Hints:
Layout (H helix, E strand, L loop, with lengths): L5 H12 L12 H4 L25 H7 L10 H15 L8 E7 L2 E6 L4 E4 L2 E3 L21 E3 L13 E5 L3 H12 L3 E5 L10 H5 L4 H4 L10 H5 L2 H4 L4 H11 L17 E3 L4 E7 L2 E6 L4 E4 L1 E4 L15 H4 L4 E2 L2 E2 L12 E3 L5 H4 L9 H15 L1
Parallel strand pairs: 4-15, 5-12, 6-7, 6-12, 7-8
Antiparallel strand pairs: 1-2, 2-3, 9-10, 10-11, 13-14
Helix pairs in contact: 1-13
This protein binds flavin-adenine dinucleotide.
Flavin-adenine dinucleotide binds next to α1 and α2.
Amino acid sequence: MIGAGPYGLAIAAHLRARQIPTVVFGKPMEFWHDMPAELYLKSSWSAASLSDPSRLFSLDRYVRSVEPHPGEPIPLPFFLRYARWFVEHAVPDVDPTYVQSLKRNDRGFRLALADGRTVEADRVIVAVGVRPFAYMPDFARDLPASVCSHTQAHSDFSCFRDRRVAVVGSGQSALEYAALLHEAGADVEVIARGPVIWINRKLYEHTGPAKRIFYPPTDVGPPGLNWLIAFPLIVRRLPEKMRLALRRRAMRPAGAKWLRPRVDGRIKTTPNTVVRRATTESGQVRLELSDGSVRVVDHLLLGTGFRPDLQRISLLDDSLRVRVAARRGFPILNEWFESSVPGLHFVGGVAGYDFGPLCNFVAGAKLTARRVARRAAAAA
Ligand SMILES: Cc1cc2nc3c(=O)[nH]c(=O)nc-3n(C[C@H](O)[C@H](O)[C@H](O)COP(=O)(O)OP(=O)(O)OC[C@H]3O[C@@H](n4cnc5c(N)ncnc54)[C@H](O)[C@@H]3O)c2cc1C
């Protein structure tokens, strides 16, 4: 298992339950530890449990036995404490070493580790998350990191106090990071190519137990589509055009309702506007916008999300990468999340071309773990 985020941990727990010897490499929940501690999860409670086959280590179990329910939205530090408990009980022996390269050999796979060790495996699951895919728009490519960065590079905004920061994007990360910057004393403007949309969850809030009719526990996507998205094996059978349309709709940039009071009326937002050009000017960034106006800011923060691309998973040896059939940068996967290279699986966001938007969220790990573990057990 390469990766110890929600997917790697869940799959490892399911594999072990089937007595399949499994070694997990990666730093447990590293991506989440690197987020700002003041962050809240966008996921609702029912969609935030890490998966183990007997549900012994769900969020509900955690609040029953360890610490009280914090309410929703779920604060990141609480989620991280829960995840630590999950790791301690379900996958206690994660090896935090990075895998440097992965090759195929005649017996299976050969992993070269960052500390010089090598490991052989019959089956490999690539669960490295979306971090390698942080998207830099063309206008930002030549700007130095001192004045332009992606949201994922930050966990602390105190250095932005009294500085002017433009945040590009209008998804949850862009809007929440804009709020955190503002609260840290920065002068912030959000520039979005589309409208700034706030998710309205009236049906969730006002329908009591009947909310489950409108919102499946996985809770990804708008009512109606969310039930389809909850079944990735059905999504996989849809024509490509429908899958892409589903992805566009479910992943459309929007902010959670609870975030709105921290942005509306507090932070300047410039919707329906694109950055045409960005240049450095005396240590600042000059932005030329599509409405003809200009901004000069101290820092440009890109809340532009992640675009999976197999080419950017650097640990894959080129000789292996060329054997992985791909489309639009995503590996093409069978119903067991297995690529065209037998025994090589890809999970998480990079599986989204076939299995849809659920793969971008913690809630997608349960189905993924069940499928991969079943495949591995059948082949063992
Ligand atoms: C700001 C923000 C907020 C989010 N909020 C939510 C939310 O509320 N709910 C939700 O469901 N999703 C949320 N997400 C998406 C979330 O990141 C994914 O759901 C989840 O992290 C995917 O899990 P993963 O296991 O695929 O990858 P990750 O969590 O990214 O884990 C990757 C793992 O791979 C390891 N790794 C990387 N490279 C190597 C290597 N070479 N060798 C070995 N190990 C390696 C890392 O150490 C890590 O353990 C959010 C994302 C962002 C950016």
